TrEMBL record:
The keyword NAD applies. InterPro entries: Gfo-Idh-MocA_inositol_DH, Gfo/Idh/MocA-like_OxRdtase_C, Gfo/Idh/MocA-like_OxRdtase_N, MI/DCI_dehydrogenase, NAD(P)-bd_dom_sf. Keywords: NAD, Oxidoreductase. Homotetramer. This is Inositol 2-dehydrogenase. Belongs to the Gfo/Idh/MocA family. Residues 3-123 form the Gfo/Idh/MocA-like oxidoreductase N-terminal domain. The gene is iolG. Involved in the oxidation of myo-inositol (MI) to 2-keto-myo-inositol (2KMI or 2-inosose).
Amino acid sequence: MTLRIGMIGPGGMGQAHIHRIHSVIAGGRVVAVADLNADNAVKVAGMIDGQAFGSSAELIASPDVDAVMICSHGPAHEADVIAAIEAGKYVFCEKPLAPTADACQRIMAAEQHAGKRLVTVGFMRRFDPSYQEMKALYDAGEIGEALMVHNAHRNPTVPESYTWDMAINDTAIHEIDTMRWLLGEEFTRVRVDKPKRTSHRFPHLQDPLILILETTSGVRVDDEVFVNCQYGYDIQCELVGETGAVRLGDQELVQRADLQGRRNRLTMDHNQRFGTAFVREVQEWITAVAKDRHTGSSSWDGYAAAAVCDAGVQALEVDGWVDVEMLPKPEFYA
């Protein structure tokens, strides 16, 4: 049986998922789309021989849609995720689950009222082979207790519409979730350091930023967010323990050797760098939904990341630490 997926927001990310689902991933097919841009919905529906709905509500309610994939802009997520929950349909929501922790709480409340875990959040780095190997080494005690983690998240450029709070909510959120998963701990406080600004930025941006985060056990995590680095999409991570360290390897596509020396060709975007992770993540979701079970990151993970992001956005405006305010974890998500 093929899982019939309805997609809300078939833009760049959504169309990349459609390509994977239709060409690489087994067991699913996108049969319907909805978009605020009606022309785009009609265009994408024609490309996949599917149906274009006039609204996300109509798509979610359709008996021809088994499960929902949300790839729209973050502020639109809450209403559509809750509608999918109320319809009793599994939903895969790209990050962020919602823009604020309060909005995520409302999603969790709806899911708990439904009595069934239906929401998976698209934190794809958990499915990246290199991060998974790093976690396996750490969990096996190969480097002792974690002391600190160094991260960098560099993009070639961002559009003028990118705002500095997006450096937290849309960019650093990846490291925030990945570090929670890697270390098995929550964050308790965050601060933001502001280095010298690059000249390759729009005037309204502070770029780069450095987030400093602290976990419940005192592990110090730093995350350099540099979204106009010019040279490529460069993701770095080094976990330092008491008896060793482990870091991501170079993420080059190829290494070239000639009279100019040896050099790497870097990935330029997240689809290149994390292509394998995206495939593994969505394949696992489709397989699980077909068996009527939840998999992957939960609404709680979306909420926890949003709570840290809320504190991070506050820290943009102040000097010093901002505490992360979080609810106790419900048994529902244990």
